[in-house]
């Protein structure tokens, strides 16, 4: 072998090892990639669903809060409209020429009581009302109004919309209030005719703060009331720094009627939702830190990726260790086994490590040594034992009816029946010449059929009721089978079939080839066996020989198996003649020549004495 050839062999072996290692790593990757893809998809779906649900929930809650504020404002406006039609309010704006002082005081008291009653319906939203009579230049309110009737104040605020300005009740306070003025005049809103009745409705910014505090208690956000150019109304626990940054953002990006944005402030993401108030033209804004809500999902995702990375590293490391400590010794062991398979029993394996494989190598070396001894000693002994077993089985089958035949010859000689004596002696002589020749273990089916003719003629001489018919196809007669294979079966039909009934006496031997197997059928018209007995007999053929079991049929079955393999056997069923059928099946080992007649009946040629 040249250097290039040796190099190519070493290169192929190295590539084989590398290919196996690559397959192991590829398998790890194939296992990891689908898991990562599925988890990433699942995590993204979860993140999107949670984000969507958070946005929808935040919008609904914010819309509900805005509707509550608008509802309370609407109640104040409705009360102002209805209150302006009240008879006492009308009476207050009249001239009251015929009224005395007590009536005027009573009217003022009733008006103030009604306004106080309307203001005290809820503690969360205290409202303030005032009634201005332009005609009388007078004012009635349900709160301590620092100034009296002021014509200029009315003219400045008669815009028909809610205005936001300093709170009149406390000039020292920095809080402001929302105001709305309604006139019962038919003139356009915002103008005074000189005799108008004006109803003022107002509420402090603390009302908004109360609503924001209640909202914040049940949510995750930090709400506030916003109008560009005005100081926002914050909840009492608001994050001043975050709110200031967010107001700066809103001043640059004016919100729509109802919007949602995810913005980044201070390297953190926030969900900003806004809903516009229908009456105040202000925006109810809520800011929710997404990192605090969606953070656990992101942390779980990152932890999963780190875990998968660590598992991947561990898997690759395990594959390397597995290859070095397991795969290489296994390949070495397989290589040694292949050399043993090729017949090289001198192969020995050595290992420098002291582990399980060193023990396997030691046992392998011992095994290869023992196999060599077995081949040289035990195998040859088994061959000789098998030949002895076959001869013993054949010897057990041969002589079991000899004494009956000799008795028949003695009786016929005493009766001076020379023809019967000659016929019996001739058939018995041909029979035993065939059965006692042990040079060969096999014979052709044609020779076995001739032996059956000798045997059946002997039985026919002893029992005149016996009639036999032999019909074997010509192509089967040249096949080789174990000697004395058919005779024990025919003998069984004679003894247990014909011999146990006075009305029977027919024996039929037929054959055929099908499915790569030769089949010979031996039928009798005797009493036969029940289905249960047939099944029990078939089962015994597959079991070891027992003391209570007859050895003739069992020996014949074993000879078939020895000669043709486990697919060959005897099988017992009910005969078409009404008695018992034995089916002999054996596989055709090779194609042989066939040159004998097809039908052998009655006085067919006898067994070949010179086989």
Automatic annotation (TrEMBL):
HAMP domain boundaries: 324-376
Record keyword Cell membrane present: yes
InterPro entries: Bact_2-comp_sensor_kinase, HAMP_dom, HATPase_C_sf, HATPase_dom, Sig_transdc_His_kin_internal
Transmembrane intervals: 20-41, 303-323
Record organism: Paenibacillus graminis
Membrane topology: Multi-pass membrane protein
One term of GO molecular function: phosphorelay sensor kinase activity
Highest taxon of source: Bacteria
CDD domains the UniProt entry points to: HAMP
Subcellular location: Cell membrane
Gene3D superfamilies: 6.10.340.10, Histidine kinase-like ATPase, C-terminal domain
Entry keywords, A to Z: Cell membrane, Kinase, Membrane, Phosphoprotein, Transferase, Transmembrane, Transmembrane helix
Primary subcellular site in the record, as a coarse category: membrane
A Pfam family the protein falls into: HAMP
The name this protein goes by in its record: Histidine kinase
GO cellular component: plasma membrane
Keyword Zinc: no
Signal peptide: none
């Amino acid at each position: 072998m040249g250097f290039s050839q040796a190099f190519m062999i070493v290169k192929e072996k190295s590539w084989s090892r590398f290919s196996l290692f690559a397959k192991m790593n590829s398998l790890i990757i194939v296992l990891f990639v689908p898991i990562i893809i599925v988890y990433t998809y699942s995590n993204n779906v979860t993140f999107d669903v949670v984000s969507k649900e958070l946005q929808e929930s935040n919008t609904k809650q914010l819309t509900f809060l805005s509707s509550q504020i608008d509802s309370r404002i609407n109640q104040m406006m409705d009360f102002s409209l209805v209150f302006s039609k009240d008879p006492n309010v009308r009476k207050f704006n009249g001239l009251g020429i015929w009224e005395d002082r007590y009536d005027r005081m009573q009217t003022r008291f009733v008006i103030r009581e009604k306004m106080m009653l309307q203001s005290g319906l809820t503690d969360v939203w205290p409202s303030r009302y005032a009634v201005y009579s332009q005609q009388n230049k007078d004012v009635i309110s349900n709160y301590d109004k620092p100034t009296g009737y002021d014509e200029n104040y009315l003219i400045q605020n008669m815009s028909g919309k809610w205005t936001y300005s300093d709170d009149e009740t406390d000039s020292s306070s920095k809080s402001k209030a929302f105001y709305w003025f309604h006139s019962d005049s038919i003139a356009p809103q915002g103008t005074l005719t000189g005799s108008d009745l004006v109803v003022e409705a107002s509420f402090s910014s603390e009302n908004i703060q109360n609503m924001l505090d209640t909202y914040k208690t049940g949510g995750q956000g930090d709400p506030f009331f916003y109008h560009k150019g005005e100081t926002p109304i914050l909840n009492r626990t608001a994050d001043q720094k975050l709110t200031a940054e967010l107001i700066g953002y809103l001043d640059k990006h004016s919100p729509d009627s109802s919007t949602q944005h995810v913005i980044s402030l201070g390297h953190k993401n926030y969900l900003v939702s806004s809903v516009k108030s229908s009456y105040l033209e202000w925006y109810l804004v809520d800011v929710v830190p997404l990192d605090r809500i969606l953070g656990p999902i992101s942390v779980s995702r990152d932890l999963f990726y780190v875990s998968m990375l660590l598992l991947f590293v561990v898997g690759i490391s395990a594959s390397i260790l597995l290859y070095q400590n397991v795969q290489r010794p296994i390949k070495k062991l397989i290589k040694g086994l292949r050399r043993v398979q090729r017949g090289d029993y001198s192969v020995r394996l050595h290992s420098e490590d002291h582990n399980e494989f060193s023990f396997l190598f030691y046992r392998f070396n011992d095994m290869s040594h023992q196999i060599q001894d077995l081949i040289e000693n035990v195998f040859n002994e088994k061959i000789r034992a098998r030949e002895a077993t076959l001869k013993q089985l054949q010897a057990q089958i041969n002589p079991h009816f000899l004494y009956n035949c000799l008795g028949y010859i003695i009786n016929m000689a005493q009766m001076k029946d020379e023809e019967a004596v000659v016929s019996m002696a001739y058939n018995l002589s041909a029979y035993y010449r065939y059965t006692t020749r042990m040079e060969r273990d096999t014979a052709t089916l044609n020779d076995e059929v001739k032996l059956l003719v000798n045997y059946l003629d002997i039985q026919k001489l002893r029992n005149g009721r016996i009639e036999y018919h032999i019909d074997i196809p010509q192509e089967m007669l040249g096949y080789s089978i174990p000697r004395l294979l058919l005779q024990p079966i025919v003998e069984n039909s004679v003894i247990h079939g014909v011999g146990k009934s006075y009305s029977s006496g027919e024996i039929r031997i037929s054959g055929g080839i099908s499915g790569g197997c030769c089949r010979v059928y031996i039928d009798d018209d005797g009493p036969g066996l029940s289905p249960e007995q047939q099944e029990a007999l078939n089962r015994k053929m597959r079991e070891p020989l027992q003391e209570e079991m007859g050895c003739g049929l069992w020996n014949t079955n074993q000879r078939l198996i020895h000669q043709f393999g486990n697919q060959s056997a005897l099988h017992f069923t009910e005969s078409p003649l009404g008695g018992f059928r034995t089916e002999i099946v054996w596989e055709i080992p090779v194609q042989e020549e066939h040159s004998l007649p097809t039908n052998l009946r009655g006085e067919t040629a006898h067994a070949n004495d010179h086989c």
